[in-house]
Structures are given as C-alpha cells and as structure tokens.
C-alpha cells in the first residue's frame, strides 16, 4: 500500500518531500526530480544520473549531426564554385 503524507503547498507551488522518503530514496538538496501527471495522479521521481547523461549525449549527437550536415552543404557549395 502507498505511503500517505499530507503536505501544504506554498504560495509558489512548493512542497517539502518528507525526510524519511528523502533518506530512503537518496534525495538531497540540489538533486533533480521529475514531476509526472499520470491521469490526474502526481508522481515525483528522482532523475537517474544515467538518464540525465543519456539525454545529454542525445543532444550532443543531434548537434553533431546538424553541424555535419551544414558542413556537407558548405563543402558542396564551395566545390560547385570552383
């Protein structure tokens, strides 16, 4: 059965994650969490470092691909002018 702990939402939408949960889930100040709306149920999950790294690598790969495509176009244009 799910653990229930009622919290008050602050003026800016903030809540405090209960200490027992932070300890059990290894959540510390500065850690990132995901807030997921799952059919009206709000779920908070710690962002896994490997997931964060994966997202970074995907963005780097996309950027690298764009640069490569632009370099090919520029090279083709330069060769066409010769």
Describe the protein in words.
The structure is a single chain. The chain is elongated and about 70 Å long. The longest helix is centred in the C-terminal third of the chain and has 33 residues. It has two helices and two strands. The chain folds into two domains: 47 residues, Pemi-like Protein 1, Chain: D; 35 residues. It is α+β, with helices and mostly antiparallel strands. Helix content is 48%, strand content 15%. The mean pLDDT is 89. Strands 1-2 form a two-stranded antiparallel sheet.
Q: Label the CATH architecture of the largest domain.
A: Ribbon
Spatial separation of the terminal alpha carbons: 73 Å
How many β strands by DSSP?
Answer: 2
CATH topology of the largest domain: Pemi-like Protein 1, Chain: D
Number of domains: 2
Helix content: 40-55%
Main attributes of the structure:
Pemi-like Protein 1, Chain: D; alpha+beta; 82 residues; 2 helices; 15% strand; two-stranded antiparallel ribbon
Summarize the model shown.
With 82 residues, the protein is of the alpha+beta class. Strands 1-2 form a two-stranded antiparallel sheet.
């Amino acid at each position: 059965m799910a653990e229930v702990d009622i919290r008050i939402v602050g003026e800016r939408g903030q809540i405090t994650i209960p200490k027992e949960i932070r300890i059990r889930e290894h959540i510390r100040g500065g850690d990132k969490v995901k807030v997921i709306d799952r059919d009206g149920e709000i779920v908070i999950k710690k962002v896994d470092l490997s997931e964060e790294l994966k997202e970074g690598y995907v963005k780097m790969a996309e950027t690298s691909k764009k640069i490569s495509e632009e370099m090919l176009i520029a090279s083709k244009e330069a060769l066409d002018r010769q």
